[in-house]
Design brief:
The chain contains nine helices and nine strands. The chain is α/β, with parallel strands linked by helices and about 240 residues long. It has a domain of about 150 residues: 3-Layer(aba) Sandwich (Rossmann fold). Strands 3-2-1-7-8-9 form a six-stranded parallel sheet, with helices on both faces. Strands 5-4-6 form a three-stranded antiparallel sheet. The longest helix has 13 residues. The two termini are about 30 Å apart. This is NAD-dependent protein deacetylase.
Length: about 240
């Protein structure tokens, strides 16, 4: 992997509008399981498949069961940023990286210090009453039981994009603007199997498309540089040039 890392470092040194697009694999090194790996949610046994439970239809029809699964399997309040999160924040501070576009909902990029984070699928740290729109924190959800209710009596819903729900239009457009303007696009820790998020790759028109993932993706043949390795180890080895 030495040649690939040399090329990656060289591209980092010469780029000033880097965009990172990441998925669940970015947070597995922080102890958060992804959805499709051997130890991920899709390989565990529940009364219903995770994809069913995490759908808008299921949430509406069986909110108690939704929240039982959500609290047990989707919330990791003690998780800490790993080398990948920290390096991306360092690159932003150095003026090299313009945005992080993420499919994750754990808030670890912000915890590491990243500022321009576009959360395509929302965040567990934001929760709103469906009736009055009052805000509730992650701690409020964890400390509640059953279906959390607002003081007004309305049901509280996590600000996460469930299956069957559309992505937030403003977040998506900002992500597209950054990707279109990037002189280097790094894709890491994602199988690129979840749409429409995965289709954002098609909006990059540059010649430094880097794909870092442990397993193959549908976009491997399109990458200018392909590195089959854990994202934390790869990004953690990058030297950052610039004023911090």
């Amino acid at each position: 992997m030495g040649h690939e890392m040399d090329t990656l470092q060289n591209w980092f040194d010469k780029s000033s509008r880097i965009v990172f697009f990441g998925g669940a694999g970015v947070s597995t090194e922080s102890g958060i399981p992804d959805f499709r790996s051997t130890d991920g949610l899709y390989h565990q046994q529940y009364d219903y498949p995770p994809e069913t439970i995490l759908s808008h239809t299921f949430y509406q029809a069986r909110p108690e069961e939704f929240y039982r699964f959500y609290r047990n399997k989707m919330l990791f309040p003690n998780a800490e940023p790993n080398a990948a999160h920290r390096k991306l924040a360092e690159l932003e501070r150095a003026g090299k990286l313009t945005a992080v576009v993420t499919q994750n909902i754990d808030g670890l990029h912000q915890a590491a210090g990243s500022r321009e984070v576009l959360e395509l699928h929302g965040s567990v740290h934001r929760n709103y009453c469906e009736k009055c729109r009052r805000f509730y924190s992650l701690e409020d959800i964890i400390s509640s039981s059953g279906v959390p209710k607002c003081t007004c009596g309305g049901r509280i819903k996590p600000d996460v994009v469930l299956y069957e729900e559309a992505l937030d239009g403003r977040t998506l457009e900002r992500a597209l603007d950054h990707i279109r303007g990037a002189d280097m696009l790094i894709i890491g820790g994602t199988s690129l199997a979840v749409y429409p998020a995965a289709s954002l790759v098609n909006y990059y028109g540059g010649k430094k498309l880097v794909l870092i993932n442990k397993s193959p993706t549908p976009y491997d043949s399109s990458a200018d540089l392909l590195i089959a390795a854990p994202i934390g180890g790869v990004l953690g080895a990058i030297r950052v040039n610039g004023s911090l």
